[in-house]
Each structure stands twice: as C-alpha cells, then as structure tokens.
Amino acid sequence: MEIPINEPRSQDGKRLHVTAQPRTRAILVGAEVASLQSPWRAPDSLRELALLADTAGLEVVGSLFQRLDQPFPKFFIGPGKVKEVAALREETGAGLVIFDDELSPSQTRNLEEALQVGVLDRTALSLDIFAQHARTHEGRLQVELAQYHYLLPRLRRQWTHLERQAGTGGGTSAGGVVGLRGPGETQLEIDRRLVDRRIAWLKEQLADVHRHRELYRKRRRQSGIPVVALVGYTNAGKSTLLNAISGADVYAANQLFATLDPTTRQITLPGGQNILLTDTVGFIQKLPTQLIAAFRATLEEINEADLLLHIVDLTHPNAQEHAQTVEATLAELGVGKRPTLTVLNKVDMLEGIGPEAVGQLVTEMGLPGDFVTVSAQRSWGISELLARIEATLAKAMVALEVVIPYQRNDLVALWHKRGVIEQEQYANEGTRVAGRLPRELVPQFAPYRVADGQKERVRRAP
C-alpha cells in the first residue's frame, strides 16, 4: 500500500505514529480604532498577534479586522463582523478566537455566546506566554499576580451554569426570603475571597523581593559601579547582544519574549572601567497594564541605570512603531529622559545600505541622532559600542584631580576600577591622579582634592 506523502515515516519507509498533541486552531480578530490614535495599522498588529499565538503554541488558521470610529459596547467589533467571524470559524474548524485588544468581561461573554467558542484577548494571551516563560521565583510571582488581577473581574463568567439568585416567589428552597443568594452567588463570593487572599500573599512575597533588591541597589550605589540597562522591543536582540558583549550564555531565540527574567553581568570597558550590564524584559505594543504593574520591581532596574541602550531591530518592517512603543513605555515608567544610546541591531541582514542610508532610516523613525550600528549575532561593531558606552558614561562623571597618599593605594585601585583616569603621576607626597569618577565616590576622594589654584599639568607616568 502506498504511504501518503504527508504521513510521517521513518528512513526505511515505515509509518510513524504522531504522539504530539495537535495544536489548537485559532482565528485572529483585530480592529483599527480611529479614536485610539495608535501608530500601528491593524494588519501589522495582527501579524504580531500571530507571532504571539505561535509562541503560545497555537495554530493560526485565519484573521479578520475592521476599521471603527470607536469600539462597539456589546462585541467590541460590529455585529456584522461577528457573523463573519462565526462563518470563518465554521469553515476552518477553529477552536479559539483571539482579539487583538483587551475585551471587557461582558464583551468576552457576549462573544462566546455568539460564536459558540472560547474567546481570548491579547492580554490573556500575553499573560499565558509570560506564565510559560517565567523561570525564576520572582518572575513566577509577578506573572501569577498579573493573572489574578486579570481574572478577578472575570470570575462571574465561571459560574453562569448556576443560578445566582434564588426565586423571589417565596418557594421552600428560598425560605420565603426575597433575593436569597443561590449557590452560584455563594461560590462566586468564595472564589473572590480566595483570589483576594492569594493576591495579598503574592504582594507580600513581592514586597520581600523588593526589599532585597533595594538592599542590593544600595550596596551597588555605594560601590559606584555604573549600570547600563538594555531596553527594547521584544525579539530586538537584547539577550544576544548581552551574550556578545559579556560572553554570557543567556537563552536567546528568534521568538517573542524568549527571556523574561533579568540578567546582569559585570564587564570591563576598553579603558579598564567596570560596569554592570543588565538585560530587561522586552516591551511590546498594548503591553497589559497588569504586567507593567507586576513587573514594576524588575523594571525599576531601568530607573537605576546610568545609561540605557535602546536596542532596535533595524530590519523589522515595523521598526519605527517598535521604537515609538519603547519610548512611550519608558515615559510611562518615568525614565523617558534617562541618558540613552540607540543601538541599531541586525545590520548584517541589510544589503546595499550604507551609513548615510542608515542615518536616514534613523531620522525617519524619529530616533535620537546618537546611534551605533551592530550585529549582535556576528559580534560586529561591539568594540565601537563599548567605546561609545565608555565615552557617554564619562560625560556623566565628575572631573577631579587629587593627590592620594601612598598608604591609600586602595583608593587608586578603586579609581582604576570604577572611574576613568586621564593622567597619573607619582610624586613625593603621593600619586597625583586626574580624571573622572562616579558622583557617589567623590566624597571618598574629597580630602585629597587639589585646590584649583594649585593644579598643575600632570603627565601620565611612563
């Protein structure tokens, strides 16, 4: 018997049995709402939603979108479009419909009744992906807290099969009391109390994590080690760049939210200065507010950074929208004015585009003119990037000239490790050093500062 070509088979032609569970088929639905004034076009946003669905293990079998002045209260989309979605579901046999925007609990319930299939919104899908990819204890706590905040107002739909109010006719089951709560309402209240308790416990656990992080940050500030944070859209190449710079072995893959948990590595710049390089969770458009709130402790690492490296995938067709989304999220976190160096990644995938064309692309995207082009995958441009980081950090340091007694050579070593030495000379009274230091370290060197009227031109010792 001939084996169908689409059947899996071994090298000797024997038929193989597929044991993997088939992926759930899903339809995507989007809306381009004029009142929301989003820079994203609905087709582009749906393509990204398809990547999210694939990351979550779903098979996308169709998509629809509608242009609206404002969302419809009942279904978010219009009733006619709901009929189109229902017809497409019948045609494709999809078992799930995913909306590109966050739906209210009543909209979700109405859509499930009309479509006779499960309905998810982008927020629920994102939460599911975060739950799959969170690895650390803190990451799991943050995701679980976000999930419960999302679930709490939607608990009512879980008990629609039970009556919520006993009859008002004074029947025996109601004991003659008007409006006596039925089993559904009782179970709903129990669930709400359980969720509230779990949320309170999760907040306590995260508060402990926050206290530990704050102690760590305090020690780090006292040490004066500059912090450089990698920020950017998801899948822009942040983890790959961290690996290329530090030699770390952080998991990196060509998928959305491949890594969620922040990673910090200490590296040495060309001039000998040590810095901490921190990879942070990637951003995405329509990032759920529950996730921003839950991950705020982690995102506070960005607020502590002396310099942000904004990683942009220059080859992505929506690079401009990506950059705008990151800038808007940073502004929401209150770090929009933090010193930033734009890093244009994946230049190895550009063909026939010179430096002038890259500069034009940066201008069109509305990015700052200060940028570096790299290929994290091929380690191109890493040396120039490190030099630019060093120069940018030096501008934020305090210029200082001191004479350090020889018995305090530990301070000279500290300067070499944490600051930038421009001139160094050995004199009778001690080591004369001129250069720049992190502001936090200046008080330790203040007793040995050379007065402005006594400064001499110091030459670096051979």
Fold topology:
Layout: E1 25-33, H1 42-55, E2 59-68, H2 79-92, E3 96-99, H3 105-115, E4 118-121, H4 122-133, H5 137-151, H6 183-223, E5 227-232, H7 238-246, E6 263-268, E7 274-279, H8 289-294, H9 296-303, E8 307-313, H10 319-332, E9 340-345, H11 355-365, E10 371-373, H12 382-395, E11 398-404, H13 409-418, E12 420-426, E13 431-437, H14 442-445
Parallel strand pairs: 1-2, 1-3, 3-4, 5-7, 5-8, 8-9, 9-10
Antiparallel strand pairs: 6-7, 11-13, 12-13
Helix pairs in contact: 1-4, 4-5, 5-6
Provide a compact summary of the structure.
By secondary structure, the chain is an alpha/beta fold.
Can you offer a commentary on this structure?
This protein has 462 residues and is α/β, with parallel strands linked by helices. The protein has four domains: 25-129, GTPase HflX, N-terminal domain (Rossmann fold, 3-Layer(aba) Sandwich); 136-165 and 177-223; 225-394, 3-Layer(aba) Sandwich (Rossmann fold); 397-454, Alpha-Beta Plaits. The protein is built from 14 helices and 13 strands. The chain has helices at 42-55, 79-92, 105-115, 122-133, 137-151, 183-223, 238-246, 289-294, 296-303, 319-332, 355-365, 382-395, 409-418, 442-445, and strands at 25-33, 59-68, 96-99, 118-121, 227-232, 263-268, 274-279, 307-313, 340-345, 371-373, 398-404, 420-426, 431-437. The strands form three sheets. The chain has a six-stranded mixed β-sheet with strand order 6-7-5-8-9-10, sandwiched between helices. A four-stranded parallel β-sheet has the order 2-1-3-4, sandwiched between helices. Helix 3 (105-115) links the parallel strand 3 and strand 4 (118-121). Helix 5 runs antiparallel to helix 6. The model is unreliable at 1-7, 159-180 and 457-462 (pLDDT under 50).
